[in-house]
Design brief:
By secondary structure, the protein is of the alpha/beta class. It contains 20 helices and 13 strands. The protein is globular. 40% of the residues are buried. The N terminus is likely disordered. Bound molecules: pyridoxal-5'-phosphate (PLP). The site of pyridoxal-5'-phosphate has 12 residues, from α8.
Length: 585
Amino acid sequence: MERTHVEGVNAASELPKTSNIIHRLGTIFRASLSLVLPLSSSLSRFAALFPLSFCCSLLPSLSLSLSLSFLPPLPFTDPRIRENRLEQQALTGPAASSSSSVASSSSAPPSSLLRGFSASAAASSKPAPYSFSPPGRNHLFVPGPVNIHENVLRAMDRPSQNHRDPWFAPFFKECLEDSKMIFGTKKGTPFIYPGTGTGGWESALTNTLSPGDKVVTFRYGQFSHLWIGKIVFLSLFSKRAFVFIFIFFRRPRNSLFPPLSFPLPRSLLPRILHPTPTPTPKDMMQRLGLDVQVIECEWGTGADEAALQKVLAADTGKKIKAVCVVHNETTTGVTSDVKGVRDAMDSSSHPALLLVDGVSSIGALEFKFDDWKVDVAVTGSQKALSLPTGLALLAVSEKALAARKHAGMKRCYYDWEDMIATNAAGSVPYTPSIPLLYGLKESLDLLKAEGFDNVVKRHHRLAEGTRKAVKAWGLELLCREPRWRSDSLTVIESPAGLDSARIVAEAYKRYNLSIGVGLSKVAGKVFRIGHLGNCDEVMQASALAGTEMALLSCGVKIEPGRGVGAALEYWAETSKVIPTRCGSS
Ligand code: PLP
């Protein structure tokens, strides 16, 4: 059978002897590094406490590293081999370059087809993923960025304009005023920053707090999780460190030495290969020098109001300056009860500010800024507003505005002072993204026309249909407690023994469907289907159909159509006639 895939060449035979020795020395060096780096964090603690077990636990890693250092060099880690191969292929074409040790295709792709291929992709005869647009469309069902309404796309398709011309001030004032709807506020002050949700968070914290201030937050997912990005080097004694060493020296398939015999825990791969260093509220709080108290909650649950109440009751000196909550945890599909958090604060008569991350909830779920007495709420344009990424929207209470006068945190770009000084006249402190603002205006108009209550109901209906499909597939939601189930996205546990990244990969590879992978602690264990923003039943049905096909492709035993059928049945019973189409025959 013809094979187009280029397998690794026997690299050792291609290298001169001296470079082989140099390469081995390099490998020894890297092996030592891989030992030392993970060691550094646990060395002092562990070695001091348990010297004997410390030495014993070193042995497997040490022998692993030494044996690996005597293996031949790896084609993919040695840049000279890679370059050699690319050069060879550039000169002779992919088929010829691999002819010695590889069965190659006799029908190499014509050069016209290679346009858009990256050098490395050409080296393995694989097209770059962006070089071909499949027919149909990319079915985007991650929980942000989300599908953009066609009217919004058209609204943004404008030539550049001068924001200092007279048209801008009334237009921008309208954007600010209209944005209050999604926050559920009449009293709050809105700000619109060029930025993302993370920028909005920085703005909330730096304008209200001082370094050293005590704050309380919950940890129940990636966006409320502290240690993102540091996970690889936690400890030599953790499974992750061993896996890291293993991956570092992974052998090519045709190597003289086969891979080490212990199986690679696949569920750990995404965590190590794709550590996501997104600053989370707590991560950012620590970097900003705040004194953070964390209330630990199980992933799949929400903000523990009772635990908060205890913490606040114990704070008799009222040292806590802010309570920070992620409203909708996009890692776990959990919506916390912000009102419940406010009630817990009120029951202890605590004066702390209430700061809420509503990045994946505001504009889709019920949010009552005024009623829940929220002090700062933050969202980003690429979520429920269904715009491209690039705007951070905030609503700020009188109390939070007053707090800025005493807040000692350094701030510049996100300083509310500059916004306050310019916004009243319909101006902005920096060059605005006019296309994004046009998009925002159109998006808010669409939500207004639908009626915000209907927007919330639509999200609930889409979520409920998706949950019915999950049940019919015989799968479980990560969020077990019905009161916390998110209407922005559904997070589903992978069937036992199946890495959820495979389901996501199958959906993308075969059906051009993008659904979300599991992140951080739940990587490999869950996958996520978004129903956030610009979406309706028929669109959501396509996401469920694609997911169901991906599950089937992964060998999951489900009756085809079962999940989709359950959702369709529910939607057929609950859908409403589009208001402007009442009376159409
Ligand atoms: N908070 C939550 C709940 C999120 O889902 C995200 C992004 O997905 C963020 C914060 C970070 O927002 P951004 O990527 O817009 O900075």
